[in-house]
Amino acid sequence: MNTPSDKNTLRIVFMGTPDFAVGSLKHILDAGFNVVGVITAPDRPAGRGRKIQKSAVKQFAEEKGLTILQPTNLKDDGFLTELQNLKANLNVVVAFRMLPKSVWQMPEHGTFNLHASLLPQYRGAAPINWAIINGETETGVTTFFIDDKIDTGNIILQQKEAILPEDTAGSLHDRLMEIGAKLVVDTCRQIEVGKVSTSRQIDSDNLKPAHKIHKETCRIDWNGSLEQIHNHIRGLSPYPAAWTYLINDGQEQNIKIYRSEIEKAEHYYPTGKLLWNKKEMKAAVKDGYLKLLEVQFPGKRKMDITQVLNGLNLEESAHLR
Q1: Is the whole model's pTM more than 0.90, yes or no?
Q2: What number of CA atoms fall less than 13 Å from residue 75's CA on the CB side?
Q3: Sequence ranges of the domains in the chain
Q4: What are phi and psi of 8, to 5 degrees?
Q5: Among candidates 289, 292, 286, 252, which has minimal Cα distance to 271?
Q6: How many angstroms separate the CA atoms of 192 and 189, rounded?
Q7: Average pLDDT of each block of 10 consecutive residues along the chain (321 residues)?
């Protein structure tokens, strides 16, 4: 491995799409590294108006005047030629898609990825969400060299981060984005001076996956414990959000719950039974009550529960299912 004398000897191609990746790209540029190209997702229609939207990484890269490629097929010969012509010697990947071998093996120094967990735990698409959903009290970030499987390559650096009781997926995402961005820069510096030390990931029977979140994953199971339901809600807030059915006056509505609070108590109400007054609403769970603090009804904006109660007529039999 070369032992370069300045940062410009690294020619970096950065690959990423969402906001989480922007933090790393910004830190790489601020540290003085030479980013010769950015690979991100193609522009896509989004929202109710189906307007074409650029990825967060593309918007930032355009502001910085960087070369941008947006391939639909990472194995396409035309794209591979364009990538080769950038003459990069290092690929940095943050929140992108799985790469073919022809891409991750291309640069001299290889390709490393930033993952928002302490690998080998929580391999997969949604590590931040699942760590909170599962009630973890610690997570972190990992840089590792990509190989031909998902999130299994040799680890370069890791940094731990506490999961606070009040954390949501959103607040933890923002902290890990910043911590991870600094770890990415530290990893680039190690590669720059030829002093990378890696360790192999050790598989075990107690590894927890972080598979992709689907709509049915987000549905609340009211048969769970208070802590399980509360963690489920905060692990999916603000996106994609936990949801449930409100059964009221013979009608069924799909509502999202963004914030909740635990109240442990003995009671004899059936699971999901709603109790309310002018200031609060709570649902009966087997080991207490779950206070609903922020919710969203179909076609409405997110609202504090006191706002909801001002305009909501509930029957005595109203419940969540």
Answers
A1: yes
A2: 3
A3: 7-192, 216-320
A4: -70, -10
A5: 286
A6: 5
A7: 54 97 98 97 81 94 97 96 97 96 96 98 97 98 96 97 98 98 98 95 94 96 97 97 94 95 95 93 96 93 91 90 95
Q: How far is Cα of residue 167 from the mean position of the Cα atoms in its chain?
A: 14
CATH superfamily of 7-192: Formyl transferase, N-terminal domain (3.40.50.170)
Tell me which CATH code domain 216-320 carries.
3.10.25.10
Q: What six digits make up the tokens of 159?
A: 């940094």
Number of residues in the chain: 321
DSSP 69-124: E--S-TT-HHHHHHHHHTT-SEEEEES--PPPHHHHTSSTT-EEEEESSSTTTT-S
3-class DSSP state of 146: coil
97: closest CA among 210, 160, 18? 18
